[in-house]
Amino acid sequence: MAKELKELTSREENYSQWYNDLVVKAGLAENSAVRGCMVIKPYGYAIWEKMQRALDQMFKDTGHENAYFPLFIPKSFFSKEAHHVEGFAKECAVVTHYRLKNDPEGKGVIVDPDAKLEEELIVRPTSETIIWNTYKNWIQSYRDLPILCNQWANVVRWEMRTRLFLRTAEFLWQEGHTAHETKEEALAEAKKMIGVYAEFAEKWMSLPVIVGHKSDSERFAGAEDTLTIEALMQDGKALQSGTSHFLAQNFAKAFDVQFTSREGKLEYVWATSWGVSTRLMGALIMAHSDNNGLVLPPKLAPIQVVMIPIYKGTEELERIAGQLEGLAAELKKRGISVKIDTRDNVRTGFKFAEYELKGVPVRLAMGPRDLAGGTIELFRRDTLSKETVSQEGLADRVEGLLDEIQANIYAKALRFRDSMITRVDTYDEFKRVLDEKGGFILAHWDGTPETEELIKAETKATIRCIPVDAPAEEGVGSVSGKPSHRRVLFARSY
Fold first, then answer.
1. Which one-letter DSSP state was computed for residue 363?
2. Are 336 and 245 members of one domain?
3. 121-136: per-residue pLDDT in tens?
């Protein structure tokens, strides 16, 4: 790599530092002046925008509409659903005053003590309460159902230990909130949306995921059931990458949201909520990237193809750039994003290293010999391999190659994930595999929160999920020796 970009810590040396270095040096995000908050830089935001566009279309294709609800939620709303407030109480930022004034002693501004709010406002950690207070006005009859709303928004959860994209005090996300006539319809919705997330992760992010149910102690606060997609990062830790919640009638009862049924009876509405966040950016980085930088699936890469002219003098640059522009136009016609880098203030080697760092899937370089011979050097980021190819038919070749790279990144991640799933039968084996190998552990669990908490306290591993396709299998819990009816998935996690 170019000297200027060599400061990237290797994964093997320090995985956590490698991640932090990569996020900053690849121009994805940086820490802000506000403690625990991040600035998402243009390149990072461009990736998020691609995620957002793809997911938004998938939501609309499944019948959902976008709306927007307030950032501030009256404190009293959180008192109405006991489990919900208990789950979020320690993470809430609270607005108590509405005005500043000049300090009489001339020390800047102070909070005006006379401008205290009658009721404190909570800065949105999630929107179930404000949305269900709103739905009460929207729903009178079964004819008003279902309501299938999604919002793209920022939320605040006052995290003490933060890491860019993975855990910040403020982050971006989408949250779907749906209202249904029947329990069956709501359950089907929760299942459908975790399927949407799994499809997005695998087809767009090239990220293999395991779909499953959270244990009672790990499910969303206020939900009856939480479905999750769990992904494995290259350091053997799991990352919860999206969740979908069956809320039953809990929020409808808390906010008295009833409707007149087809039989003319008053009934409470059934509900779901579901969301993914900028945490997906962390998953994308940690699942695929290497010591040279980002490895981006082409579908999410802001620049899919970069073209670099190699030249001496202005005349040579003009001839090569003109040829590259013609090739770029052919690629753009196919919906492929292309950048031609004609900067003359950095060396070619620096450009090569920079685009490797940024994870651009395909790099094309052309010098005077290539121009004369009708060739071009083609480099693919996923394998770090390069070859000289003909300019003729280049658009077809690159289009096919982008699909190949997308599939190859997924296949590599899948092979790794599958190699890191280990079946264990004893607690000693559980702890040994966790410490020596990491990854997902398939083990029997007796179904009690006591055993779950003991394992967490002693090993820092949690039940990531009870896989939806987990077969019935009689056994005994590795810790308690009590009967177990299926294996569940454990891992240390982010």
1. E
2. no
3. 999 999 999 999 999 9
